[in-house]
User: Which sequence fits this backbone?
């Protein structure tokens, strides 16, 4: 991370502001004091702070595993589909209306159907995550492919490229930065879908599960601890994506 | 410059519009609920008990009705005070021993795997008897299952979950026998759900005998009781596929938790046990049903957020057995979900909590308070877990009995 | 390598209307090592002509022959250089140059070595590992030339390659192009807007009419190189060509060029 001071300034201020506000409001139900939340965060390896749901780390790993699978599957489907829709007018016209119809449906709304179709277990949870990640990846891939300059393609053709060469040597590298952005956004949304996905019965681990269980017992401090962990992991992973962007795709920003 | 008739047209349009708006406002004003004729109480459905303590502490509700341990938590954590336990709600005597949670099974499980069903029923019956004998130990087990024996923190007060559960247990009656009285009491809930318009299928206009027939199949209970009496549990044939058992995170389902956590005792004493695969987990997910030393079925223990969710899992054959509240079971059977209620799992075990500073400490003073609040145009708000739930039926009946009409908020 | 363009015509269909006739009856022969420019008013179809020769678009009628054989699609004997945005920004300068060679299943080492020679030819040896965004417009076009030369075509097709550059860079690159042309002995078909450029560079200038483009006249330029932009002969030819592409279309005088001995 560059410029650590400005990166951390606002979060630190928010934390301080929180404590001050908590004291001023003096109603721990409206704004719980950080002292009820921090012990949970300071013992991430201990199962004693989570109402029997296992340690924070255990739950975080369980969630990461599921989101990773759902995300990768989404990418595996969305990227080829996006390339096809970006390159072929026919494919685009065929699929566009269906996709625009499905896109606004929040992943949470898919939960009952996921339960009915895929039964309880990893598949239904992964499905919800996949829905979350799918559309940003798809749309950005289409966009990226469309942004590949016609000249680049024609140069390749005049230099002897066949269809396959054009795809592999021009379209893919040319659209890669936008696709990468789609992956970054897609992962962020997939990560956000945790609570919806882990709401499925039969889930016994995970940050979303932790929050829901805490909610059922009105344990706001545990809910907040879960939220903090979700937020921190989300930021860290986003930073990984940004690092990749910087390392491989600087050329996009620097092109005139 | 416009011709006079054009100006007139525009002007008269504006007048018409203004008149319509004025009329609308007057009507709206007249229909705004001011102090109404009959005193009323608002019921707010919270889809579960989770938000109730926060709502009460932030003055968004005046009280709530919930299942244990959310009742006992209130005085211990300084959230509120207990107004009445569910069995004591008016009409006097009506709700004593009111049915609450049941043990239900898919019909095909009862028909095609009778030995398994009977054995599972027996395990729960033995566990229930144990709870009656060892309430404190059982309460601790439940605290482990629900909360890892950790603390409940409400606001800035923390209370030990063990203590909360141990205080709550005496208010829950853990009994199983599906007596005729019990079955008749269940019908009260059928009537109540009909009135609320929640039934639209087989139970909507069934006669009492028909309802009883549709709802209950107690053969497994009697078979289990007989086996326990005789001292021998019949070993069921080994199951090849995983068997799902659903439950809710409520101390009413203690029979299951105690059976699992105390598996060693039950195996040694009765030759039947629900043995968890992970012996250290607070909330085991997989367990083996052991009968006479042999594992006969791999059980997947699935907790759901609410009864209707459990019944949906039963409908899709994800679970074959469930500990569940009776209203969701009734609603499911109404929709022809192929399940039957075998026996009770508990009676009573709910209660009404109100704010500490509420000017009421018994039902009579509560009614007075509700009436005066209603007269001020600010009816008392009581939260209930869900429409048609046991708690909802109870509070409505009690309120209406006391001359208060119920409005949904 | 002779390039024969026979009676080429191109129509673009427009839905709901009459189609647009871009080119009509273009016939042209290019001898080996010739430098021929195509000039004309806007919309005359000069770029369309080039694209058809390159194989990027198809002709509506007529054909292209290379050494007597009809070609209807892209030929490896030809390479095209575009006006701008043609370099791949994700590849280094050297990797851009190897791009065409990669398609010929040549190994990595030989490809790299070949690319280096062409890099040297355009005078950018020190920039092998730079990225296009680090280069000026003129340098980028030189890379584009190197890339085209790297597949060793017989014919270079150039579509206003210096059109996006400032005047000074443009003049510099024109000179360099002539040097490269002399060294590599390619045939060049060069589309441009600029009369001055065409007169400076070409052996012949093909002047097209406005749409639908037909050949108005092919102007011979027998002046020796390097050519002096300020000389009277240069000016005379320039005037003549300007007249040919002006609106009136009629030449003011018969200004066909006589040999320099006159």
Assistant:
């Amino acid at each position: 991370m560059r410029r650590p001071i400005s990166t951390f300034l606002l979060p630190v201020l928010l934390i301080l502001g929180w404590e001050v506000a908590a004291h001023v409001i003096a109603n721990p139900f409206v704004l719980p004091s950080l002292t009820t939340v921090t012990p949970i965060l300071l013992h991430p390896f201990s199962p004693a702070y989570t109402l029997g749901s296992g340690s924070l780390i255990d739950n975080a790993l369980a969630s990461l595993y599921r989101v990773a699978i759902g995300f990768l599957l989404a990418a595996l489907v969305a990227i080829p589909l996006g390339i096809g829709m970006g390159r072929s007018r026919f494919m685009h016209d065929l699929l566009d209306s269906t996709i625009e119809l499905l896109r606004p449906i929040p992943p949470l709304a898919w939960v009952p159907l996921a339960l009915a179709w895929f039964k309880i277990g990893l598949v239904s949870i992964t499905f919800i995550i996949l829905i979350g990640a799918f559309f940003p990846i798809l749309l950005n891939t289409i966009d990226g492919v469309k942004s590949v300059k016609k000249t680049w393609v024609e140069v390749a053709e005049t230099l002897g490229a066949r269809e396959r060469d054009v795809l592999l040597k021009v379209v893919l590298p040319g659209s890669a930065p936008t696709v990468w952005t789609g992956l970054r956004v897609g992962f962020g949304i997939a990560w956000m879908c945790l609570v919806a996905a882990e709401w499925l019965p039969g889930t016994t681990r995970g940050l979303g599960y932790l929050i829901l269980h805490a909610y059922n017992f009105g344990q706001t401090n545990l809910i907040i601890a879960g939220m903090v962990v979700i937020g921190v992991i989300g930021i860290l992973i986003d930073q990984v994506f940004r690092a990749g962007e910087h390392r491989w795709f600087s050329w996009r920003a620097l092109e005139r | 410059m416009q011709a006079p008739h054009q100006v007139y047209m525009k002007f008269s349009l504006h007048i018409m519009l203004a008149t319509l708006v004025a009329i609308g406002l007057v009507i709206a004003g007249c229909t705004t609920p001011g102090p109404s004729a009959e005193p009323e109480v608002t019921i707010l459905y919270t889809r579960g008990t989770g938000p109730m303590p926060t709502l009460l502490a932030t003055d968004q509700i005046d009280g709530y009705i919930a299942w244990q341990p959310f009742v006992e938590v209130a005085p211990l954590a300084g959230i509120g005070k207990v107004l009445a336990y569910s069995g004591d709600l008016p009409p006097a005597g009506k709700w004593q021993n009111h049915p609450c949670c049941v043990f239900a099974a898919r019909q095909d499980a009862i028909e095609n795997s009778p030995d398994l069903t009977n054995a599972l029923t027996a395990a729960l019956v033995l566990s229930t008897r144990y709870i009656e004998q060892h309430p404190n130990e059982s309460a601790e087990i439940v605290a482990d299952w629900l909360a890892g024996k950790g603390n409940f923190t409400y606001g800035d007060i923390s209370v030990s979950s063990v203590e909360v559960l141990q205080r709550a247990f005496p208010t829950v009656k853990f009994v199983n026998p599906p007596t005729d009285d019990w079955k008749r009491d269940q019908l009260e809930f059928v009537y109540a759900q009909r009135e609320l318009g929640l039934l639209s299928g087989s139970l909507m206009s069934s006669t009492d005998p028909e309802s009883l027939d549709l709802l209950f199949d107690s053969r497994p209970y009697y078979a289990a009781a007989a086996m326990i009496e005789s001292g021998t549990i019949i070993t069921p044939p080994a199951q090849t596929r995983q068997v799902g058992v659903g439950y809710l995170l409520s101390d009413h389902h203690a029979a299951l938790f105690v059976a699992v956590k105390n598996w060693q005792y039950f195996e040694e004493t009765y030759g039947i046990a629900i043995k968890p695969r992970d012996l250290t987990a607070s909330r085991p997910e997989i367990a083996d049903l052991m009968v006479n030393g042999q594992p006969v079925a791999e059980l997947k223990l699935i907790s759901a957020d609410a009864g209707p969710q459990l019944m949906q899992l039963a409908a899709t054959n994800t679970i074959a057995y469930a500990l569940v509240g009776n209203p969701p079971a009734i609603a499911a059977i109404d929709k022809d979900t192929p399940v039957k209620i075998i026996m009770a799992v508990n009676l009573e075990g709910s209660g009404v909590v109100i704010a500490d500073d509420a000017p009421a400490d018994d039902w009579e003073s509560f009614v007075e308070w509700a009436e005066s609040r209603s007269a001020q145009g600010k009816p008392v708000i009581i939260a209930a877990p869900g429409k048609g739930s046991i708690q909802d039926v109870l509070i409505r009946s009690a309120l209406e009995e006391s001359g208060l009409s119920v409005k949904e908020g | 390598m002779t390039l024969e363009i026979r009676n080429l015509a191109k129509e673009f269909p427009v839905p709901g209307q009459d189609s647009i006739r871009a080119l009509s009856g273009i016939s042209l022969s290019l001898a080996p090592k010739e430098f021929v420019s195509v000039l004309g008013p806007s919309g005359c179809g000069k770029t369309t002509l080039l694209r058809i020769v390159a194989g990027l678009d198809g002709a509506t009628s007529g054909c292209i022959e290379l050494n007597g054989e009809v070609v209807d699609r892209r030929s490896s004997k030809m390479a095209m250089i575009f006006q701008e945005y043609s370099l791949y920004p994700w590849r280094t300068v050297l990797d851009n140059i190897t791009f065409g060679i990669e398609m010929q299943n040549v190994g990595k080492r030989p490809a790299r070595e070949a690319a280096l020679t062409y890099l040297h030819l355009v005078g950018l040896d020190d920039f092998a590992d730079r990225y296009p965004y680090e280069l000026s417009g003129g340098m980028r076009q030189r890379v584009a030339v190197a890339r085209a030369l790297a597949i060793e075509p017989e014919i270079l097709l150039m579509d206003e390659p210096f059109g996006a550059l400032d005047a000074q860079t443009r003049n510099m690159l024109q000179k360099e192009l002539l040097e490269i042309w002399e060294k590599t002995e390619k045939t060049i078909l060069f589309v441009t807007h600029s009369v001055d450029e065409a007169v400076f560079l070409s052996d012949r200038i093909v002047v097209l009419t406005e749409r639908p483009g037909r050949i108005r006249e092919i102007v011979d330029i027998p002046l020796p190189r390097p050519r002096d932009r300020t000389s009277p002969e240069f000016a005379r030819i320039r005037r003549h060509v300007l007249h040919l592409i002006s609106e009136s279309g009629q030449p003011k005088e018969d200004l066909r060029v006589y040999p320099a001995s006159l």
Residues 214 and 220 of chain A are 7 Å apart (CA to CA). Chain A has one domain: 54-254. Chain A has a mean pLDDT of 89.
